[in-house]
Amino acid sequence: MRFLRYPGGKSKLIDYLDDYLPNSKYIKGNYIEPFLGGGSVFLYIQPSKSILSDMNKELIDLYKGIRNCPHKVWEIFSSFPEGKEAYYLIRDSEYLNKPITYRAARTLYLNRTCFKGMWRHSPNGNFSVGYGGEERRWVVTHSDLVELSRILKNAKFHVADFNKILDNVKDGDFIFFDPPYKPGEKELIESHYAYSRFTYDDQVRLSKRIKQISKLHKIRWVMTNSNHTDICKLYKGFKIKKLMKGTGKKIGIHTKESQEVIITNI
Ligand SMILES: C[S@@+](CC[C@H](N)C(=O)[O-])C[C@H]1O[C@@H](n2cnc3c(N)ncnc32)[C@H](O)[C@@H]1O
Fold first, then answer.
1. Residue 176, SS3?
2. Closest approach atom of ligand 1 to CA 194
């Protein structure tokens, strides 16, 4: 299942990742995802116990709203009128003091109808992406939200930097890391991410913390990252597999053009 359009979403890489992802019944501890985004890997595995986190509060409120009240979120989402005028009215109206069900429905609506599923905010914090159309709005159905609510039932949510979430790690956990890619790449230049300026220093910080928890605990982890020498150097000693970006079919081909890597301790 896929319910969000998310920049850097991993749904197209699931075929490649599949070899590295455990079946949910083989995850003894928690499934942890510190850079949740659209959650395509979480939704693919559907683990029974999970810790899901992102710096993007609107995103986490969307998950929480759907988990707690899928029917109400659907009712509000489907009541928003169609068209450009309605889009700008809903986008620019006050929403912070509204209930979480409204905020979740609004975020889902903006995500499904904005231009290319971008997630960009102006300096004053307001969602600033223009209207994209209704074509992708009704791809999501009422029963999808009910199903999502069921899948999210035992999930624990956090809005936090990855470092804080990794304080929760215990033996037996499986962690999937999908940090925003190297600065300078398209996603970051176009500033799709609301809460991220994930710099090279953040990548260094992340690699150090992963090395630390890998020594301290019996855990398995998988990461997707940019196939850039500066990134790969940070994970010397771990398995690094180069991938063709988003081709969907040519699994595991090693090529100079490869732009993404899977890094893992499995
Ligand atoms: C590449 S996206 C994840 C995409 C996701 N795997 C999917 O399939 O849709 C990276 C996410 O990391 C979040 N993020 C950025 N900086 C972060 C930080 N320091 N700690 C935790 N999350 C962060 C962004 O808000 C964004 O949602």
1. strand
2. 25
**35-45 residue pLDDT tens:** 999 999 999 99
70 CB under 6 A from ligand 1? no
Atom 13 (ligand 1) nearest CA: 35
- The answer to whether residues 183 and 200 touch, using CB atoms and an 8 Å cutoff, is yes
Provide the pLDDT confidence category of residue 243 given band limits of 50, 70 and 90. confident
Pocket test for ligand 1, best of 5, 35, 127, 166 (most atoms within 8 A of CB): 35
Is 187 near ligand 1, meaning CB less than 6 Å away? no
From residue 54, how far is each of 25, 49, 59, 247, 259 by CA, in Å?
25, 17, 8, 27, 24
Structural domains in the chain plus CATH codes: 11-55+160-264 (3.40.50.150), 74-149 (1.10.1020.10)
The residue with greater pLDDT, 12 or 142, is 142
